[in-house]
Amino acid sequence: AQSVAQPEDQVNVAEGNPLTVKCTYSVSGNPYLFWYVQYPNRGLQFLLKYITGDNLVKGSYGFEAEFNKSQTSFHLKKPSALVSDSALYFCAVRDGGSGAGSYQLTFGKGTKLSVIP
Amino acid sequence: NAGVTQTPKFRVLKTGQSMTLLCAQDMNHEYMYWYRQDPGMGLRLIHYSVGEGTTAKGEVPDGYNVSRLKKQNFLLGLESAAPSQTSVYFCASRPGPPGGEQYFGPGTRLTVT
After folding, report:
1. How far, in Å, CA of B6 to CA of A33, rounded?
2. Mutation choice for B interface testing from A30, A94, A102 by most B CBs within 10 A
3. What pLDDT was estimated at residue B68?
4. What is the mean predicted confidence (pLDDT) over A67-72?
5. CA–CA separation, A76 and A19 (whole Å)
6. Comparing C-alpha atoms, which of A21, A34, A2, A111 is closest to residue B102?
7. Residues 9-68 of B with CB under 8 A from A
């Protein structure tokens, strides 16, 4: 079975400071990893993904994430936080092999990011 | 393109009533999904479909049924609603290649009293 852990329910950061939202995963095959953002009363929006290749992935709105296979982590980062980045962030994993896990995306419980002016 | 749309946006049901949530996508995606989102629980997969005419159970399928008679539509049914089904329901779709990301609808907020 595949799983995702987001160890922090909430992350607070001052505007202009770097931010990190943590994610670790467990999957039997090669991981396909995703980050999504959810603004209040909205659906989830795709930010970035890791499928293969470079461990540092760049995505929308200046976000990036680093894939670390040995630590089974995929932390989301941004060099300089904006107040408008305040939202709920979800990490998700899919098994890159065959079988039922390859069809299903498993989400973490989410991390609420608050950027303080 | 409208992307993924969901109908209705809000609904209040009494215990025991039934309803159907409609999800439609205009991107010709193969895969479609229904999730529920509850505070502190993240998104949990209810049912999914890997193509027209096929459906499969996800993590929390009990009390729900689904159908995918047309490629662009994925229906979620509640035959006898229970208060435990009060939640926000999201539909998503994605293209066939396994590395593709999911596209989400705006959600349906369902309250069962």
Report:
1. 26
2. A94
3. 97
4. 96
5. 8
6. A34
7. 31, 33, 40-45, 48, 50, 56, 58
